Amino acid sequence: MYSNNISLYREFCSQNSQVPLFIQPWWMDAVCPKFKWNVLLFTKKNQILGVWVFQVFEKWGFKLIIQPQLTQYNGIWINRPDNLSDNKVISFDNKVITNLLKQFESVKFSYFDQNFHHSFSNWLPFYWRGFKQTTRYTYQIKNILDTDKCFEEFNYDKRNLIKKSINKLTCTHTLSGEDFYKITKENLAKLGKKISYSESTFLALYRASTERGQSAVLACYDDANTLHAALFLVWDEHVAYNLISTINPDLKASGGSALVVWEAIKFLKDKTQIFDFEGSMIESVENSFRHFGTSQVPYFRVRKYNSFVFRLLYLLKNI
């Protein structure tokens, strides 16, 4: 069933530019190299009206439905007809979600944990079936087409920091994917942290998105060719995502992290409409993102345990 669904879904995505980036088949192929991904489809009169994209991960003999690495969201996306009233939107969404949930019963998972795209606003059918929800937040600049206006919306301190760093740092597009990963790993090590994704996973995504013309690495250097900050950006025609950022902790006061964001916005203004900082629930990071004149955008994290044994093991491993 699933293999046929994936084929139909690939064809659907090739003809529909509205499907969000992180549930595109090529994206899932790149970030799920060792694990299977599947899609459920709700169709009517041979038209796909709803999809549910998910990764299947095996751990300790249990089947887990969890987020792939480097992927902000998966979950359900609804292909609504145009010009539905608010009341009809709710009815239509409930019909699609209920159908997909009915199909999902055959998956037989032990643990479910997915982030949903921010356009998914109705998790009630999940609540009725025992799922739990946590609201998370990302931060977006809603319109990057007018870069002058974007800059005016930045907090005064951000603007001042960028103006000072422009005269000291240079941003380039020459850093390779391999070097970006290496530098990110080194910067985390300086902070006593480990990188959470493998080089092979990152490079698979880097190569797939680069081949499609939907990613770039921007890096800021000083006159001594020392890297201060860098970003890995991905985008479609609607939204660009600051997927990975790295800052040299020895030079974090230089303004490089603010400058590279500003240069990214200018670079992307002819490619997409929205700049998404990828969000954070960490107070200091949230504060920094907000100072770029962003809007706070909520999205849902939905979870459910179907196995008491797995829940016990999970809790014991995370004590």
Task: Tell me what the structure shows.
The chain is α+β, with helices and mostly antiparallel strands. It folds into two domains: 154 residues, Aminopeptidase, CATH 3.40.630; 129 residues, Aminopeptidase (3-Layer(aba) Sandwich), CATH 3.40.630.30. The protein is built from eleven helices and twelve strands. Strands 1, 2, 3, 4, 5, 6, 7, 8, 9, 10, 11 and 12 form a twelve-stranded mixed sheet that branches. Strand 2 and strand 3 form a beta hairpin. Helix 6 crosses helix 9. The chain is globular. It starts with a helix and ends with a helix. The mean pLDDT is 94.
Summary, kept brief:
The chain has 319 residues and is an alpha+beta fold. Helices cover 37% and strands 28% of the residues. The chain has helices at 2-14, 25-31, 86-104, 124-127, 147-153, 156-166, 177-190, 199-211, 256-268, 283-290, 308-317; strands at 36-44, 47-59, 62-66, 75-78, 111-115, 132-141, 170-172, 215-221, 227-235, 239-247, 274-276, 295-305.
Jot down its keywords.
319 residues, 2 domains, twelve-stranded mixed beta sheet, 37% helix, alpha+beta, Aminopeptidase, 11 helices
Largest sheet: 12 strands, mixed
Q: How large a portion of the residues is in β-strands, by DSSP E? A: 25-35%
User: Which fold name corresponds to the CATH topology of the largest domain?
Assistant: Aminopeptidase
Which range best describes the helical content: under 10%, 10-25%, 25-40%, 40-55%, 55-70% or over 70%?
25-40%
Report the radius of gyration as a whole number of Å: 21 Å
CATH hierarchy: architecture of the largest domain: 3-Layer(aba) Sandwich
Number of helices: 11
User: For the terminal residues, how far apart are their CA atoms?
Assistant: 39 Å
- Uncertain residue ranges: none
Task: State the shape.
Answer: globular
Give the tally of structural domains: 2
CATH class of the largest domain: Alpha Beta
The residue-averaged pLDDT reads 94
CATH superfamily annotation of the largest domain: Gcn5-related N-acetyltransferase (GNAT)
* Order of helical and strand elements: HHEEEEHEHEHHEHHEEEHEHEH
- Please count the beta strands (DSSP E, at least 2 residues each): 12
